[in-house]
Amino acid sequence: MEDQVQTTKRGWKKELREWTISLVLALSFAFLFQNYVYAQSEVHNISMQNTLVAGQRLIEDKWSYHFKHPQRGDIVIIKGPESEQRLVKRVIGIPGDEIDVRDGAVYLNGELTHEPYVKGLTTIGSTQFPYKVEPGKLFVMGDNREHSEDSRSLGPISFSSIEGKVVYRIWPIAKFGNVY
């Protein structure tokens, strides 16, 4: 009888230890996944309207840009010294591109861009145009051009300031899906 009580006590302690280890490993994996692979983010301002609006929740890919550089058209999340806030913006120019703003429109390498997602006219800001994007930098703009703090006022964004790429909208449910 005494052996059975000892076995039960050891069995209970062993199971508690196994559950604790499993829980710690699961929480550690979730923390690492959230911080280094995919994360959930929320839109807090109007600079990306009509593509994204305040209150929408997004899935951010933090992993891909370790293997490749951002491309024109990518919607990125910026967290760096260029701004005190995390920003969501669209990549307009990559290294070597020449950006110009004329008559409320953007010209990329001398060609008028086709940007059906843009809301409002594109104004100049404090950047001198035409602007040549330097190596290791990106030129970004919000889709709501008249109400966006972006490369026109902040200057170019370093690759190292890019936290990740927006890949999915998960809230509201009616708008669930890829983000372009």
UniProtKB/TrEMBL annotation:
<feature type="active site">
    <location>
        <position position="89"/>
    </location>
</feature>
<dbReference type="GO" id="GO:0005886">
    <property type="term" value="C:plasma membrane"/>
</dbReference>
<feature type="transmembrane region" description="Helical">
    <location>
        <begin position="21"/>
        <end position="39"/>
    </location>
</feature>
<keyword id="KW-0812">Transmembrane</keyword>
<dbReference type="InterPro" id="IPR019758">
    <property type="entry name" value="Pept_S26A_signal_pept_1_CS"/>
</dbReference>
<protein>
    <recommendedName>
        <fullName>Signal peptidase I</fullName>
        <ecNumber>3.4.21.89</ecNumber>
    </recommendedName>
</protein>
<feature type="active site">
    <location>
        <position position="47"/>
    </location>
</feature>
<dbReference type="Pfam" id="PF10502">
    <property type="entry name" value="Peptidase_S26"/>
</dbReference>
<dbReference type="InterPro" id="IPR000223">
    <property type="entry name" value="Pept_S26A_signal_pept_1"/>
</dbReference>
<comment type="similarity">
    <text>Belongs to the peptidase S26 family.</text>
</comment>
<keyword id="KW-0472">Membrane</keyword>
<dbReference type="InterPro" id="IPR019757">
    <property type="entry name" value="Pept_S26A_signal_pept_1_Lys-AS"/>
</dbReference>
<dbReference type="GO" id="GO:0004252">
    <property type="term" value="F:serine-type endopeptidase activity"/>
</dbReference>
<keyword id="KW-0645">Protease</keyword>
<keyword id="KW-1133">Transmembrane helix</keyword>
<feature type="domain" description="Peptidase S26">
    <location>
        <begin position="17"/>
        <end position="171"/>
    </location>
</feature>
<dbReference type="GO" id="GO:0009003">
    <property type="term" value="F:signal peptidase activity"/>
</dbReference>
<dbReference type="InterPro" id="IPR036286">
    <property type="entry name" value="LexA/Signal_pep-like_sf"/>
</dbReference>
<dbReference type="GO" id="GO:0006465">
    <property type="term" value="P:signal peptide processing"/>
</dbReference>
<keyword id="KW-0378">Hydrolase</keyword>
<dbReference type="InterPro" id="IPR019533">
    <property type="entry name" value="Peptidase_S26"/>
</dbReference>
